[in-house]
Amino acid sequence: MIDDQLKNIAEQAKIDLKECLNQNDILNIRAKYLGKKSLVNSLYSQLRNLPEEERPSFGKKVNELRNELERMIDEKEKELKLQIVNAYDSVQANDLTLPGVYFPPGSLHPLTIIRRKMEDIFISLGFQIAEGPDIEDEYHNFDALNTPEDHPSRNLADTFYLDNGYLLRTQTSTVQVRTMESYPPPIYIISPGRCYRNDKPDPSHSPVFHQVEGLVVDKGISMADLKDTLQFFAKAMFGPEVKSRIRPHFFPFTEPSAEMDISCVSCQGKGCRICKNSGWLELAGAGMVDPSVLEMMGIDDQIYNGYAFGIGIERIAMLKYNIPDMRILYENDVRMLRQFSRELI
Amino acid sequence: MIVSTRWLSKYIDLPETLEELVQTLTFTGIEVEAIQEISALPETVVTARILNSEKIPGTEHLQVCIIDYGKEPLQVVCGAPNCRSGLITAFAQVGSKLPEMEIKKTIIHSVESAGMLCSEKELGISDNHSGIIELPPETPVGISINEIYELPDNILELEITPNRPDLLGYIGIARDLAASLNKRLKLPSINNYPGEEDSSLHLTLILQEPQKCPRYTARIIDGISVKESPLWLKNALIKSGLRPINNIVDITNYVMLETGQPLHAFDYHKLLPINQEDPHPAIIVRRAKAAEEFIALDGNKYLLDEEDLVIADGQRPSALAGIIGGKDTAISNHTTTIVLESANFSPSTIRKSSLRHKISTDSSYRFERHLSPAYLEMVSNRALELIINVAGGRVCNELYDAYPVPQKPLFLAVRPSRFEELIGYKLDASLINNYLQSLGFQYILCGLWQKEPINEYKLLPQAMELDLETSDNQIFFENPQLALYFLVPSYRVDITREADIIEELARLDGFDKIPQKKLIHPIMDWHAHHIKRKIEDYFRQSGFYEMINPSFIDPIKLEYLGEDKAELEKKLIRIVNPQSSNQSAMRTTMLPQLLDNLLYNLNHSERNLKLMEMGKLYWKDGNKNCETLHLTALMTGLNNLDHWKVKNEPIDLYNVKGVIEGLLDQLSITIDETKNVHHPWLVESDNLAYFCNNHLCASFGRLKAKTAERFNIDIITLKQDIWVLDFKVNTLIELTRTNKIEFSPLPKFPAVIRDISFLINFSVPYADIVKSIKLVEPYLIQDVKIFDEYRGKGVPDGWHSISLHIILQDYEKTLTEERVGQVIDSVIKMLENTWQIKMR
Ligand SMILES: [Zn+2]
């Protein structure tokens, strides 16, 4: 009779397990057969009602049943888990051609992008960035830069003057002057910033524009160093195939003065509309710092000499991105700006 | 290399203080990795002889001793097993302060004891605690133990770079120090040992592998007695980190530490002959045979192959060359005759065998670094002298010396002009000579420079007539090719080119003498540079388009904003010669220009716009011109671009707050106050300014439709809010200037997150709720975060439901369920008491 009872329990368990669908069912079955108030436990409680001599064999049988039930339940649980894993790993119905979720960034202004590129190029050459005010006095903008009293650039038609006697700097060379006032050589700086000239806006002029100027004052600096630096810059900005040349020019601040050209980035020097068929594009003004400028700064021009250069950021941006008119840069049209969201800086 | 300064001072007068010595070593290029100071014992710890010792009845091993320590005999009790009459040992008098105790007069088992006989451990000299110290019988009584043990002493752990094997010996280090300190190197005087001509003891020496063993020397010493080493020798080895074994092995180790050249001693009588025709014990330097067995001193059996070099006798390997000796031929207490090996092995052979068999010894360590074969005889003689002194014996025969290809001399030229080029200052030729002489270089002549090293005297260039001490140094700079020729000491295997010599000179003269050539001043404000770029990138990444507008403004537009005319007049800088009236002043705000940009883009069918400009504002303050960097931004329209998966909602107050708070968080700026800004162009309820340490950092607000209208933007028709954001970039730069990121150790215990939800009156600000919750348990509650807010059905009017994550973390221990419960309970109680919340 007891054997029947045990057999029934095992049979019932098999049926229950067959109907078992998920982890929760397994838990319930485990409780039903093996838990504290389970069928098997109630069998154990029958044990003490049995005569002494029957107890060991009964106990053994119940234990066997218990082990068998545990094995069955474990097996079913494993099977269920495998089903779940297999279902998870099986093919899903997804349309892989629908677009993914991605929020495009905005964009920096091309003038900022170019400024940052220029800063990085010159920093890699050991230059430091120096900054100064836009609102300047005549001394720092003209006198200290060796500009003659009657030089046309001092005219109202060229320079913006302010109602309190100051003016808006016409180039960031003012920062060079201020740096030389504060620090002894060696000096290796660039000064990016806003400049102002009383030019009517047209495809290549803007009353407000941006410059990066450079200044080096050290022992044994020659025009060859200047040429190297500008050439390095041109290749870093426009690519290794770009050629450059310098030719004589005039600036009050430098002696000798030069302008630097690069081979046309549009026609590679063959001649086109952008380079006005010359094959060359003007890129920078430069030269050896005039001894009288050094002298004014209290730097011994017999020990030290240096070079300076100025590069227009708008000009570089227009050449690099093929922007035909400077005024486009100041329209702040997001359709234009969006084109630069993928730039590398 | 572990170095005792006492031992080192045998070869050079050391600087007075340890600091100076360490400094000199460091700047000579020898890094001091660790310093262990062994302090002196009290002078009241002295040598004493046990005159008489008797067991104390009723005890197991206590003895009562009468001792003589140079004064009145005293009675002491001692429990050491080796305590016996006649022994000379260390005696600590009453009152001596030892490392772990102070000696007092005591009574042990009714016996008075006036002091203590000590073990090495009790004196802090070593870990030996097997018994009281046993000093040699000839030791005088009553002298300080400091004298016996050479105390105090400093033990330095030096890092020797692999290019300097010559520094793996005391003399090498002393030589560098002597050159650097300009002091005399005191070398031990070494005698030559011609050996007895009529000796009957002979050795057969065969060198089969001159590539792997450029030179092998051996000496036979007969009649020695192997025993424990004298105290000085044992002390010296222990202080340098080696274990004393017996007098012969200890001497080979001592000489290795002194000179850097490893030595080995074989038991002569255990070396087997080759055969009966050549019956003398043999030493054959050969390759091992394939699968040849070798039992080393360490007791291990090694299976050798043909790449291994062995020192074999007539039958079997008796040493793995340069690495470890063999068990069969090792020195034992019965050894009476030894063969002393002083040899040179090629570094690669030693390195490969050492790696293959995983044996690294003090010997292999040195050979791997390339030693010179030139000094083997000298080193051997040094060991002979010590052996004869310590172990007795006599030297048989001359030096056995297999040296098929003697090392060639190496002459190198160094140009003073080149020193200046390379190091940056002029060093006098006479100083060059002095430094190099003290390193053991020999000055040969002054002549024209030649790049290639010279190996023969006759190839040297013609000498110039020049006295280095008196001649004008200038000549070397007028003629930059003028060079000094030196013979390189052969122990300096690392020196093969002029540049190596120049390095030595620069090192010895001191790197502190190298002038700073260019004082480049830090002009650039790197911090500002990084912050500006971070801000630019933040806005770009947040979907903003950067505007660049001129610095000019139309003053009328400032009035459009509602600014006070009189105030404007005070700060506005006007342009004398403007191109037009709408560009006649310097901008004091970027808002009008950005509104123009907004209008332009709205007119070009761009509805969802995030625009920003970072630029300068200009105004005057009395006579002063001011320029500060600002960032102004506008946001309008939908927050995200259209996407089929993402619900796109209009930009609201919290999107705008997110932009501001996200940037402030990225810059690690903690806001301690927020309040309304009261700009005439912003809606009064929806604007906020952020402060840190009373500095205004940023503000935002919703633009009034009335203001927008003046800029031709019709907000009502547009059905879009326009949000204005403003940042004082200069302030952000200054507030973050001293910020630094510092790693904090990760918590060892898990954090616990508990959620609570409650109804609260709408008038209670969220910020106040968070602040007050954190105050309940400031050390446990690390963070409080809102994850849901709800108004409407089921919530009374004027109330809303707030759901919070409360993050608890104890850095000291695991938080128990009970403790967490307590904290949450007090949080709820506090909320109920303060704001009468209703828990949900
Ligand atoms: Zn062209």
Automatic annotation (TrEMBL), chain B:
The UniProt record lists the keyword Ligase: yes
Keywords: Ligase
EC main group: ligase
EC number from the UniProt entry: 6.1.1.20
Protein's name in the database: Phenylalanine--tRNA ligase subunit beta
